[in-house]
Amino acid sequence: MKTTITAKKMQIPQNFTEYAETKIDTKLSKFFGDEADAKIVISEIKNQIVIELTVKYNSIIFRAERSAEDKNVALDDAIDKIIRQIRKNKTKIEKRLKDTAFKENFAEPVQEVDYEVIRHKKFKMRPMDTDEAILQMNMLGHNFFMFTNAENGEINVVYKRSEGNYAVLEPDNQ
Q: What is the pLDDT of residue 131?
C-alpha cells in the first residue's frame, strides 16, 4: 500500500512517518491490495492534532477524520474508524476488496445494515455561483446543496464541513 503523508502548517516528525506506515501496513493491508493508496493529512487546530485518513482502492474511497492531543492516538482512531466502516458494510464491499480480506479478519458475525430510501425529491436547478449556492443552503437550513455551476455548467454539491468551513464536490469526468 502506498502511503502519502502531508502536513498543513506544521512539520511531520520522522518517527510519526515510520509509525504511520507501520500501522497502516499492519492494520489495513489485510483488506487492500498493493494498488491501494493511503493519504494522511495532519494539521493542528486549537491544540488538537487532526488526522484525515483517506484510502482509495478499486474505486472505493474510505475516509476518516479524527482529532486528539497526540498524533498517534488520532491516527489509531482514524484507522479503527475505517476498519469499522469496512466491517459495517462487509457484504456490500467484499467483492471489491482483497480475496482474503474477510476470511480471517472477522470471525464473529456482523449485523448487516440495509439502506432504506424513504424519500425521492425532484427540484429545478438553475445556474448559480458557489456563493449563491452556499447562501441557498444556509437559507434552507440544510447541510448540503446541489446546484448547476454557472461557471462550467456542471452539477456540483456544496456542503458544510464539521469545523464550519464549506466545501464543493465537483465531478471529475476523466
A: 92
Identity at 70, one-letter amino acid code: D
Give residue for cell 455551476.
149
Give the whole-angstrom CA distance, residue 101 versus residue 70: 30
| SS3 of residue 23 by DSSP | helix
Q: What nine digits make up the cell of 133?
A: 449556492
Cβ proximity of 85 and 62 under 8 Å: yes
| Contact assessment for residue 130 and residue 149, using Cβ atoms and an 8 Å cutoff | yes
The span from the CA of 136 to the CA of 79, in Å, is: 35
The set of residues, in sequence order, having a beta carbon less than 8 Å from that of 19 and lying 6+ positions away, is 72, 75
Mean pLDDT by 10 residues, the chain (174 residues): 89 89 88 85 90 85 89 93 79 58 52 76 88 88 92 94 90 81
